[in-house]
Design goal:
By secondary structure, the chain is mostly helical. The protein has one domain. The protein contains one helix and two strands. Strand 1 and strand 2 form a beta hairpin. The protein is elongated.
Length: about 60
């Protein structure tokens, strides 16, 4: 019985690590596509609109 519980925990842990890896890979791919698009257009950064003030500011890179 202990072996079954150990295997279940091991499989669940592996699945969570896999999902985390996929999420990080998608984020990295999106960031590199954005940087490539900025490089092609010669842009310094991407502007985003502040919903409160209505002003446009350079989007900050978040980790």
């Amino acid at each position: 019985m202990a072996q079954l519980i150990f295997m279940a925990v091991l499989i669940c842990g592996g699945w969570m690590l896999y999902k985390r890896f996929i999420k990080d890979a998608e984020k990295l791919t999106a960031r590199s596509k954005q940087q490539e698009k900025e490089r092609q257009t010669g842009a310094v950064g991407t502007l985003e609109k502040d919903p409160v003030t209505g002003e446009y500011r350079v989007k900050k890179e978040e980790e």
